[in-house]
Amino acid sequence: MVQNNIFDLTGKVALITGAGGILGPKHGEAIIEFGGNVVLTDYNLEKVQKKADALNEKYGGQVARAFYMDVTKKETISAVADQLERVDILINNAAKDPKVEDSKGMTPSSRFETMTEEFWHAGISATLHGTFLCSQVFSNKMLENGGGVIINIASCLANIAPDQRVYRQEGVEEHMQNVKPITYVTSKWAVVGITKYLATYFAERNIRVNSFSPTGVWNERIPEHMVGRISSLIPMNRMANIDEYKGAIAFLASDASSYMTGANLIIDGGKTVW
């Protein structure tokens, strides 16, 4: 380890919510590669355990642990906290993001005109309520150990509205056209609000709180025509590669950002500039 490396995370423990998905384990890699250990949590224990096992195999040691945790249920969050000696970094990554399928359209409940209250509450709960509950429980853990870092994963859509034309399909009636639901956008805007509130709330108690707004990550499941549409909205004319956000996580988690709190770091290929 380089002496006085401001990115050094040796001895730090980072807990990542919603780590059974695509980006959660990548956030974990960023922590591990700078010396830290990670706790991966998800409501699907089998899935997140496989992610932890893969990290342990990749980095050759017990650098990752997996726990069941439903971010909408405080008792499951507290149960994990009780099993951990310390949490230095919390990455609030869990969110409910209904994927827009290249099929015959989504259910009408995802569209604003016909959205059900159940759909609304479910969408808000995982992202917004989960961020609130996890920040509450684990900030107390941090205070017991003298401070810490909270990183809230927002979205480029916490800065602009979605261009619904990206999801349109020919031959599908208007009331069945795919859309990015208002639940996702609203909750991500609110995550930035929580970030600013907690940043000032904890500023004098050595807990820094920042949010991070990425844009979409390319994967082979995204239909080619949608990749083209999305890329056309980005000045760099491409979606993000899966490893391109690791630097941001390492920066926000470490002393490299020691004088930064309450900020929303946008990394989106320039999408929100247009």
What does this structure look like?
The chain has 274 residues and is α/β, with parallel strands linked by helices. It has a single domain (13-99, 123-164, 181-220, 246-273), classed as Rossmann fold (3-Layer(aba) Sandwich), CATH 3.40.50.720. It is built from seven helices and seven strands.
Provide keyphrases for this structure:
7 strands, 274 residues, 14% strand, Rossmann fold
The global form is: globular
- As a percent range, the share of helical residues equals 25-40%
Order of helices and strands: EHEHEHEHEHEHHE
- Number of domain units: 1
Largest sheet geometry: 7 strands, parallel
Low-confidence stretches: none
Overall pLDDT metric:
93
Distance between the termini: 41 Å
- Helices, by number, come to 7
- Total E-strand runs: 7
Instruction: Round the Cα radius of gyration to an integer and report it.
Output: 19 Å
Entry summary:
This protein has 274 residues and is an alpha/beta fold. 36% of the residues lie in helices and 14% in strands. The model has no long low-confidence stretch (mean pLDDT 93).
What secondary-structure arrangement, pairings included, does this model have?
Blueprint: E1 13-16, H1 23-32, E2 37-42, H2 45-59, E3 64-68, H3 74-82, E4 89-92, H4 117-144, E5 148-153, H5 182-201, E6 207-214, H6 224-232, H7 246-253, E7 264-267
Parallel strand pairs: 1-2, 1-4, 2-3, 4-5, 5-6, 6-7
Helix pairs in contact: 1-2, 1-7, 3-4, 4-5
